[in-house]
Structure formats: structure tokens, C-alpha cells
Amino acid sequence: MTRIRRLSEGTINRIAAGEVVERPASAVKELVENAIDAGARHIDIVIGAGGRELIRITDDGCGMSADELALAVERHATSKMRLDESGREDMHDIATLGFRGEALPSIGAVARLSIVSRPHEAESAHRILVEGGQVGAVEPASGVAGTRIEVRDLFYATPARLKFMKSERAETMAVAETVKRLAMAHPEIAFALTSSDRNMLRLDAELPGVEGRLSRLSAIMGRDFAANALAIDAIRENVALTGFVGLPTYNRGTAQAQFLFVNGRPVRDKLLVGAVRGAYADFLARDRHPAVALFVEIDPRDVDVNVHPAKSEVRFRDAGLVRGLIVGALRHALHEAGHRASTTVAGATLGALRPGITPQGAPAYASQAYAPGSCFAESAGEWQGAFADMAARSGRVENPESMDHASPYIAPDNMPLGVARGQLHETYVIAQTADGIVIVDQHAAHERLVYERMKKAMAEQGVARQILLIPEVVELEEADAERLAARASEWAELGFVLEGFGDGAVVVREVPAIFGKLDVGGLVRDLADELSEMDQALSLKEKLEDVCGTIACHGSVRAGRRLTGDEMNALLREMEVTPHSGQCNHGRPTYVELKLSDIERLFGRR
Question: Which is more confidently placed, 44 or 396?
Fold first, then answer.
């Protein structure tokens, strides 16, 4: 007697449901995607008990006839797959969100499903019921043009699945997140989401174009995102990339504010997430994440959307092309932003000055004291000559005297970061602008300037080196010393000439000429720590942002150093012409700008 048998139709449907319908949010996703594919311009979603008791989705799409209703609840029946010239289904030309033909029968296999639909040209509607996989007859019904789908008692036919359900609140939030992602991708459609008679989301249809898309993103991600967003519009070969990305200083502690779409389909793709991370590598610490909403448009034949049952992952034919486009477009936009910093930085500062007020959407670092870290570490080393060099290059420095002496007044007109008026606690430069004040963290700002100069020098002719009069021997753990010495040739490209010096030590003979007096020992130990955390397969050039960031930090002017007027103004002028100078190498702001109108409000003058 054979041990192999065919599964029953009900069991097959329940297995399929387990892949497609993991939780209420999965069912909502499949049904809303069907409504979008049907050409709906308004989609209304109602859920009860987190979607477990009720999911009702009403749309004004094209609707279905009686015959189409009967086919719609059969497995692998779909209207969304095109036929090729030979009359066969073309699996490589999928331009819709749904195409498998599994959603409705899978949901009907584990719940009580009711569909009422009417085409726009028809005079009456029809209804069909599916309960636990049992399909009823198509019957006449009353209904407006479009489709209304009700799903009740989800997973009642598979009670074992119910124990994996999360709390009602968690399931409700998952449904809201799903609807928000779909709404981002389709701003031309109006969405409404109601949970137990509570309006959770109500979005009007937006006008086509960039402004309409930004308006929809602002409604979902918050107004602060729109105020701190950079537009992306790039194309390479047959791939187009549009959307908006946040300034580096407008960052988050998690990647939850990253929304990625491929041909209108929300995805969580490792390639795309990695590309975004790579583009911001120069600007954010490892534990900070940018806010982005990116839309990739690509020929359906060049992307496989059939690699995951829930269609949440995709596979590109030319992954390198897509990744290069994203990294290049984002870096270009960040470069064009210049010294611009997030508006939430100033908002958080003003909020801190008003007890009890915490601005919404402000980055975590913006409303608290800076945490100690490499960017703000202090050492005994002093900066020698760098600001004098900057002052010599700056065409706007007119005051030859230190600000400690009587200085002629310099008007701040046409200077975005203003004119230095003083220094607080030998750490913060205070500058007057045409309509406010700017407070600059001298160490964070100079760290970014040194970093950008190092990158530019490496790209053009390599980093110039200077010989130490007395080579410095640095003692380390034996493993750290071996790792440093093994990559001596790569360190030389970064301006360091070092070699092994017995067991557990290295000797440094040359350092980058861009630095003056330098704590060589402290820097080498930090570089050893940096190298120990790297993947050994990576070259230092591939990890340039980490290595140069550490070097730049040690070579920057420290907090606690008194600056002259020329030095402060030279710092401001160089910040104005240096890309990315609004944030240090870890994504923290290098300056805060307060408008005069805001300051006047603090004192009740407005």
C-alpha cells in the first residue's frame, strides 16, 4: 500500500493560507493590493479587534461580474498576469501588485469571507460567501460600483494559529503600518483606516507630481520630514530612482523610518537597505539610521517579485546597477545640501529652553547632552597652525586682531553662518547672522572639515606625509600590533608610515602632513581598535569612512582651546563652502541656528 497520498483541497488551501496570511495585516495587504490593481481611487478599511474579528475593505475599482466572482475564489485564478505572443502566462512581465491568485481562496480557507462586487457598467451587484474553504453560490445583491470584502473570525478554521496572534494593539498597529506603506506608494489614491470606530488614518488623494508625493509622505512621516528632506531624482540605464531622503542630522535610533518601494510595491530588501546604509556611511554612527522614502521604477522583466510568498522581497537581474544608482544619487543629494543641518536641531534647542516642551520628531541627541564618544573625546594634544592656514585661505577675514582685543565691527550680510562674536567655555563659537545667531561646536565642525580634506587629498594625489623627527614607538596587544603591521602599505596611503617593532609594538615614522602636533600613541591605539572590529576581508579603502573619521577626530581642534577672531571666522567661512559640514562624522550637528524671531519669543517680545 502506497504511503504517498494527495492532500485534500481544504488542507492545500490551509497550507497556502499559512504562507500568504500570517496575521491580519497580511490579509489587509493582499486585499488592499487587489483594490489598487482594480484601479480604485478611494479605499476604505475597517478592522475590529486588530483584524481578528473583522476586516472590511471597500473600494471604487472596476468591480467583478458574477462569473468573475466565482473564479476569483478559486486557487491560482487571476486577472493580473499577461499572456505572451504564444498565449502563455508571462512570468517575467508582472506589472501588478498581486498576481499569484492565492489571496482570496487562502483567506476563505481560514475565515468567513464575503465579497460583494459590481462592475461600473452593470445594473446590479453579486455576492459570494466562503467559510472555512466551503464556497457558496453566487447570488444577486445590492451594492454600489466597486467591491466590498468582509473577512470575519480570521483563523477560526485553524484555531492553532490563534495562539500566535499578538495583542489587539500590536495587530492594529501592524495593519496601520501596512496601510501606510501602500498609501506612500500611491498618493493618487485616498485611504481611510478605522479601528473599532476610531479613525486611525485619513488621507485625501494628492495631485500627481513631486509635491503631491511629498505631501503624502509628510502626512505619514510627519511635517519635520518634509522640512528636512532632500529630493531624489536620478536615472541610470533602465532604472529610475525618485523620492526623498532626510538630512544626516535628522536621523533615528532604528531603521523604522526607511520606506523602500519597487514598481509601487513596498519591500524590505537587504540590497536596498544596504545601499542606503552605504550612502550615509560618511555621516552617521553605526547605531543611527536615516529617514528615507525611495521609489525604484524598473522594467518588470529585470526584477523577480516571485521570490517570497508575501512578495516582500525582490531579486534584481543587475543588483550592482541598482545599488550603484541608489548610493550615487543619495551621495549627490547630500553633497548638494552643503552645510545645511536639520531644522529639528534648532527646535530641540528652543524646546530645551522652554521647560516641559519636547519637539516631536527631534533626533534623540538633539534634546539631551552629547554622550561621550570618539567625536567629542578630549586629549592633551593641541592643534597647531590649521586655523592659521584656514584664515590665510579665507577671503572674508578682515579682522587681524584677536577678538580678545577691540575689534572693528563686521556686518554679517551674505554670510550664511554669520560673523563670530565670541567663544563660550572655549568650546562653542557664537556667531551673528543677518536674522539670528549660530552656535558652533568647534571640535565637531573642524573634525568634519579635516575629514573632507583628507578624502579630497586621497582622491586627487594621496595624503601628503611629514616625517617625525623622533619616531614614536607605541606598545599594543600583540594581536593588535600584528594587524596594524600587516597592512602597512594601506596605512601609508592614508598618510601613516608604520612598521612592526618587536612583539606587541609598532613604530610610527610619518604622519599626515595635514596635522600639526598629534597624540600619535592615542591615535594608533584607536586605529587598532577600529581595525579589530573590521571584517578582515575588507581593505582599509573600503572602510575609509571609519578610519578617516578616527584620524580626523584626533587631528581636530579640541574643546577647551581658545580661538582668535580670525580663527573663528575662518572656521565659519570654510564650513560654508565644505559639503556636509552641518554634521560631524557621526551624524551629530556641528552647529545650531536660532532665528531672531524665536529668540524674541523666548523673552515675550513677540
Answer: 44
